[in-house]
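W.,

You were right to be curious about this one. When I first looked at the sequence I had no strong expectations either way, so I just let the prediction run and decided to look at it fresh. Below is the sequence, 236 residues in total, followed by the output.
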Amino acid sequence: MDSRRQLIAAIAVAGSCIFTAACHSQPDQGTKASTSTRTTTTKAPPPVGENGLKGFLLTPEQINAVMGTTDMKVTNTRDAMSDDSATMTPKECLAIDGSAQAQVYANSGFMDVRDQTLNRQEGDNLTHFAEQAVVLFPTAKQAGDFFAASAQQWQACHGYTHIQSKTKWTVGPISNASGVISTTSTLQDPPSTGWKACGRALTVKNNVVVDVNTCSVDPKNSAVDIANQIAAKVPA
């Protein structure tokens, strides 16, 4: 009986190995180590080339849709920046007053720019205005550095004056959300017709900075929407 009991006990133990992990072979420590150290790497996108800015700007139809109007026409397309520093004050608000300003980008290392303005006019009054610009930098880091510096610079502006017209503008809160710096400037004592406020937005994608200004009675989020649509065209 003792020998039978021993045999039954041995069979029971052997059978239990079928249903438990205790009897399964375990990988050696070398296998564990090699598995745990496996990593994946993401290759950085190549920078946009010198001729890569073509095609990034929105069409007039797309601008009209964002601005909630019709018949906005292209009034100027250029590959150089404007310098409006002599027509407004203080200078720390130049970046908020308009897009693609030469003094704002001075010494930033940018390589190229495409800048376009559009407007809609009723009689002598401009009711809608948009300026869209894309600025090329040699590397994504340099473009990102300009964006970071702009986020700080914009905070210094709270209001500005157009010297020739003597119109005064109040700058609203500066937002830096979802990769876009934005604000709205409101015209003090606005005329009964024409635009009354302007929106500004700046974003970066790869080595391209997108710089947008929109003006109307109520620009809402138009500058941000245009900037995001342009940025979506930039490969990354």
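Here's what jumped out at me. The CA atoms of residues 191 and 226 lie 26 Å apart. And, maybe more interesting for your project: The chain is about 30% helix and 30% strand.

Coffee later to discuss?

I.
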